[in-house]
Amino acid sequence: MLFMVIEKFRNQDAVAVYRRARERGRQIPEGAEFVDSWVSADLGRCFQLMRCDDPALLQRWIAAWADLVEFEVVPVTPGRETSAALQDLL
Predict the structure, then answer these.
(1) Contacts of 27-32 spanning 24+ positions with Cβ under 8 A
(2) CATH number at 2-89
(3) What are the domain boundaries of the chain?
(4) Phi, psi (5° rounding) for residue 27?
(5) What are the pLDDT digits (tens) for 47-67?
(6) Cα dist. 69→64, 77, 81, 88 in Å?
(7) What's this model's pTM, rounded to 2 decimal places?
(8) Could you give the 3-state DSSP secondary structure of residue 80?
(9) Which of 9, 37, 40, 59 is the right S-S partner for 45, CB 3.0 to 4.6 Å?
(10) Beta strand pairing status for 69-76 and 2-9?
(11) 3-class secondary structure, 53
């Protein structure tokens, strides 16, 4: 499954987040995969696309960052797959 993870940096402190990532890595458990990320222009949020079959692995990853980041996790499907699934209704 794919998940769009929206991270809101606590206190708008992107520096603390990047510092920890440099020191400890992403801390992603085995079985979860980082796909790509984008950061908002104001450095307040990060949007990460993650692939994972077990949402509990994402929960473990989130717990490692919860002191610095607020998380919203949204299961997503690529648009082309959604389009194909809805083709008979269009």
Answers:
(1) 27/61, 27/64, 27/65, 28/61, 29/57, 29/60, 29/61, 31/57, 32/57, 32/58, 32/61
(2) 3.30.70
(3) 2-89
(4) 60, 35
(5) 999 999 999 999 999 999 999
(6) 10, 24, 31, 41
(7) 0.88
(8) helix
(9) 40
(10) antiparallel
(11) coil
